[in-house]
Amino acid sequence: MSEESQQLDNSVIAELQNKDHSTLAQQLDELTCEHSDIIELLAQYQVLSEQDDDDKFDTWYDSLCEDKLRVLKGFELYRAHYEQLQSAAND
């Protein structure tokens, strides 16, 4: 895992513990990405993360711009919170 990936993972964990996404939401609202860019990014992320080729994923991930990395961070945060909510509802 690249150093940048590790930093993203650490920041995602910190945000999950915080559970206040107002700052993240504001950052996401100010992105230069178009909606179609975000949809393409998430599709690529899902497909590449499901493959067994870590090098291919790392190369793709390391080439992302800061805005796209921020989108992935936001996606992971909101997905994790949604999964937590679903898990709690099923208990």
Summarize the structure.
The protein is mainly α. Helix content is 81%, strand content 0%. The protein has a domain at 34-90.
Can you characterise this structure?
This protein is an all-alpha fold. The chain has a domain at about 35-90. It has five helices and no strands. α1 (about 5-20) crosses α5 (about 65-90), α2 (about 20-30) packs across α5 (about 65-90) and α3 (about 35-50) crosses α5 (about 65-90). The chain is globular and about 35 Å long. The relative contact order is 0.17.
Task: Tell me roughly what share of residues is in helical segments.
Answer: over 70%
The proportion of strand residues reads under 5%
- Average pLDDT confidence is 80
Give the number of helices: 5
Major sheet: none
What shape does the CA trace take? globular
**Which series of helices and strands comes N to C?**
HHHHH
What structural category do the secondary elements indicate?
Answer: mainly alpha
Q: Radius of gyration, Cα only, in angstroms? A: 14 Å
Tell me the distance between the termini.
Answer: 34 Å
Identify low-pLDDT runs. Answer: none
**What is the strand tally?**
0
